[in-house]
Amino acid sequence: MPNLNVSVRAATLEQARAAAAVAGMTLSAWVDKTLAESIWTARFARQQQRNAALGVTPDYLAAEYARLEDLRRAAG
To answer: How far, in Å, CA of 76 to CA of 66, rounded?
Structure first.
């Protein structure tokens, strides 16, 4: 199990508690949600970097999707 001992400023903790209260969540649930969102954001950013390195653009993805849809429709 990783060492989860962290130092948090009192002001940061109070801001987190306030944000959790506004969201109607416990502080623990709010922290879990925030961490999960940050993990997905980081994964998405890494995927965007990989796509850019491979030359995969939004236009390419749209054209590929259209091509696959056309094949699916032709297949019946």
So the answer is: 16
